[in-house]
Amino acid sequence: MRRAGAAPAAVGPGPSRPAGVVGGHHPVKTVTVVQSSYIPWKGYFDLIGLADEFVVYDDVEFSRGTWRNRNRIKTPQGLRWLTIPIRYRGHSRARIDEIETSGTSWAADHWRALEASYGSAPHFETYRDAVEALYRDGEERSLSRINVRFLRALCALLGIRTPITLSTDYEATGTGTERLVGLLTQAGATRYVSGPAGRAYIDERAFERAGIALEWMDYAGYAEYPQPHPPFEHAVTVLDLLFSVGPRAPRYLKSFAPEPPPPRPAPGSR
To answer: Which of 86, 117, 216, 257 is deepest in the core (most CB within 10 A)?
Structure first.
C-alpha cells in the first residue's frame, strides 16, 4: 500500500496486506477492480488503498440506480442523495464510459449542497478550495471521466498513492469472471481483493486455475468518528469523513498502515 503514515485507530480486521513475496520467491501484486462511483464511501477507498494497482472497470454496462452517478451526504434534515443527471440514447445498453451527463448545472448544485451541509464542519475550510475546484470544472460530460477525476483528487487528499488505471488500458476478452481474470492476468496480479458483493457472481475456480489468490473485503467494524447531523451513518460519501476529521481521516480506513519506526541505534553507537 502506498500511504503516508500516522497512528491508526481501532478498526475491525480487513484483508491483510501482501508481504511482498510468495514463498520467498515471487513478487506479490495486489490488484483491485471496481466500476467507478461518484464521490464514493470510505470502503471504496479502502479497496484502492489495499492495492498495488486499482483498475477502474468502466467498459461494462451501466446500471441505473447504482452508485455510478450518485452518493449520499448528511444534512440537518437527514440523508440526501446527490445525483449526477445522465442522458440515455434510445434503449441502448451503454457502457459506463459511454454515459454522458444531461447538463452541467449539477456541479454547482452539488457544491451548494455540500457547503450548506458541511460548511460548519471542523475541517470544511481545510478542503474547501480543493473540493470546490473539482466542481468548478463543469464542462466535462463523460460520467466516467468525472468519477475518475474525483477519485484521483480524493485519493490525494487521503494520502493514497495507489496508481489508478483503466480497464481499457488492457485487452481483456470474454465475459463475467473470465474477463475479470483476463484483465488481472494482463495487469500482472497475483492477488485480488473483491468487495463482498462479488460472492454472488465470481467463479472462484477461475481464479484457482489462473493462480490468482482471491480474498474478500470485510466492511464490518469501522470506527465511528465525530460526524455532523446525528445519528451516525457509515454509508455516505468519503467527503463526510474528510470534512469531519481532516488529516486524521486515514486513521478511519482499514487499509491505513503507519510508517515503520526508524531502527534504533545499536548500543554504544552514536
So the answer is: 117
Number of domains in the chain: 1
**Domain membership flag for residue 3:** no
Provide the sign of the torsion angle of the four alpha carbons 197, 200, 205, 206, taken in this order.
Answer: negative
pLDDT tens per residue across span 71-114:
999 999 999 999 999 987 655 689 999 999 998 999 999 999 99
CA dist 240 and 243 (Å) reads 5
pTM of the model as a whole: 0.85
- Cβ distance 88 to 82 under 8 Å? no
| Residue 30 backbone phi and psi in degrees, to 5 | -90, 125
Q: Which residues contact 170 (CB under 8 A, 6 or more apart)?
A: 55, 183, 186, 187
CA-based end-to-end distance of the chain? 33
Is the residue at 76 inside a domain?
Answer: yes
What tens digit of pLDDT does each residue of 175-195 get?
899 999 999 999 999 999 999
CB 70 within 8 A of CB 38: yes
Helix 105-118 to helix 124-136 angle, to the nearest 10 degrees?
Answer: 170
